[in-house]
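Notes from hallway chat w/ T.B., transcribed later so I don't forget. T.B. wanted the structure written out for a chain they're using in a teaching module, and asked if we could keep both sequence and structure tokens in one place. Agreed to drop them here.
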Amino acid sequence: MTARANRTERAVVAAKVEWRARLLAARRAIPPHVRTERAVALARSAVDLAATTGGPVCAYLPVGIEPGSPELVAALHAAGHEVLLPVVPAVPGPLDWARYDGPAATAAGPLGLQEPTGPRLGPSAVATARLVLVPALAADRSGRRLGRGGGYYDRTLPLVADDVPLVVVLNDDELVDELPAEPHDRRVTAALLADAGHTPLRGDPLGNRS
């Protein structure tokens, strides 16, 4: 790597750190009742979207102040979809997956996650999904996604079939014009927003364009 490329990479990493700090502060400032109202809307939009794609649906149980709620996952399950949830591997790599069988069949896992207690299906299970809901702090109009920096989804999303929607779940103001990105960042195809609902981004495999 050249010195110039090294400087560019460091600048992108620093910019991501700044973005994360601002976004997390903004999420913490959202009143609880607003967060609850948005979670209800996101659950409704997720069920509507899954009705157009079918399953399995790879989703996740939000942690802390992340948009959405456990009810989003429960609503997908109640609608008859097979729902797979991530399991953090012991060694950093692609996420493992297990079927969601209700809140009683989950237990605390690493990184504050609630994980299914059922059989592990392996990282390749994500390749069976017809819809993948992805956590993020923000996304931009061209599909760049900003995560928390752990890299688990960066290692996982390349396993998803090319025609499967990758949909980030966000507050409406977290869809921005442009974000810093690195070469390994896999772009997403749409955002699920509390007010705007399903919002296609550039490269949406369902044939839509922003």
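Follow-up for T.B.: Residues 3-28 form the longest helix (26 residues). Might be a good example for the class.
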